[in-house]
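Regression test attached.
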Amino acid sequence: MIELLKTFMNGLFQPSIALTLTIVAVAAMYRYRRIVTQNKLVASLVVASPVLFFAISAFDENFWIQFKRPDNIPIAGMMFLVVFFTWFALKLAVDNDDRIREGRPPKEAEPEEEEKVFVWPDLVYSELLCLLLVSILLVVWSILIPAPLEEPANPQLTPNPSKAPWYFLGLQEILVYFDPWLAGVVIPTFIIIGLMAIPYLDTNPKGNGYYTFEERKSEVFLFQFGFLVLWVFLVFEGTFLRGPNWNFYGPYEYWDAHKLVPLTNVQLSEFIWARWLGIGLPSFWLVREFFGIVLMLGYFVALPVWLASSFLRKYFEQMGMFRYVIFSHLLLWMILIPIKMYLRWTVNLKYFVAIPEFLFNI
Amino acid sequence: MSWLGNLKEKVGTPSQWYSDFTRTPVWKSIFRHKLPNDPKNRALVVLTNVFLHLHPVRMRKQGLRVSYTWCMGGISFFLFLSLTVTGILLMFYYRPTAQHAYPDMLDLMESASLGIMREMHRWGAHLMIITVWLHMLRVFLTGSYKPPREFNWVVGVLLLVLTLLFSFTGYLLPWDQLAMWAVTVGSNMARATPMMGAEGPGMQLMQLGDVPLITAGSDVRFVLLAGRFVGEGALLRFYVLHCLGIPFIFVILLAVHFWRVRRDGGISGPGKGGKLAL
């Protein structure tokens, strides 16, 4: 029975299924926000879900091997904190949205909240309290769990798996689906630029200085999609579900370094020239990759234009040309990540455009 | 027993000692305020202290609420200070050379009694990354990056990136397998930088006649690692970046960040939050 359950859970954590479930869970949390924040049973289940998962899974000896690595413990803590604070912010937002609908100001704008108090002692006091609590946590943690130190560095001996530091594992996971120049350089750069651009792209004047969801639904959902799904979830996956050779291992599966995973990835050009047209690959790269290049031009050039007159019309009109161009490209890059993942899982697509002659693959 | 009464009178009570002590020239030269239990002295205690002066004298009640701020920015800053202190202590024991780095780690573990500095440093670093992320989440969800705080969000993103670089450069220093290969995986990405990496798209364009400008011995990864692989050059380079280079930029940006919080009207809030506070 338990073995069956473990096999089921291992299947559930397949990257394709787990990513889909995460997206559904985040969407459902915001869609059914009232139930999630006001029904005590649902609320406790949501907040406790990471704790329950880690606590129950720790009984499995294979999971325990990964969980007990000292560097992985903060990730378990992070999962709990991220879920808790997402839920907590949503609760405050739902309360405020109710107040706004009733014509009252958000809680943060109540007259008594506007009252001025002295920083000494009111703020200094809570800062001191925070400092003490964090110090205690840090000292206890440091006494209980020694920092890891492995064998001395040896350039001749590559560990399997070789993992980047845990906070970069989301990017290492993206490396499965994208070429290093995209996953390791361009996408991180776009993440940084995209984050810095947020205040200049978000033209919605509402929701400044208080928690709200209804006044800025798409902004919040977009950010949370990037943060919870494409960053935190991928960090979790890269830590606990990626083993030797960066193969997928279910949470309760033994990390067998000899696990064989067939490599069946196909380039878009091979799909079109060999499978559909049946005439084999042309030798000149421009002809060979013609369809892929057209597809990418369509995605990055034609699609934003079309979106400006359809789904994103509201944004185009609010933002103006310059801001819209930047916004739509950042958005399309972000969405390309799950698109590429799903294409890999369904049709084993390797690259849309593959020009190894110029080390250029998308 | 009158001698005892006299003695008591002469010695005084602790509250008398305190008031006597606060009247000495030494005390008065340090503290420019009296006991901060009235508005005037509560203002003075903040205004006359360079550290407390990061704060305003008065603030909206709403900005105090831990449910609003989660205190994540403050915790991140405290962790930064704690990491600085433990980092300085660790520097006493550590030599960034391939010969000494790992044995110094062993010495630190085995010889430093009750030593938890390395643990405090490592766990504090992990925790700081998490608190910085949560601080960003809070600032986003309260819309606090909206005018007039747009630029401070940008500074915050730079601080987030530097926090990750702090941790990444520090990751190499134990000079064990975990360190070397995590940094190898990370720095291999630099190879693929367009135009600047030896295996990046566009490197063929970077040629002078037949001479390639970008090779494994001259690309951006080589600059980062001071070599073609993670070796002693990289160790020194990461050490200097970790202990001096990044902190130098970080502290400057931190100063800008705090200064802007003050200048842009304190902790964000609805209503008058948009006004410039001077």
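Expected vs. actual: identical. The beta strands of chain B are 58-60, 207-208, 211-212.
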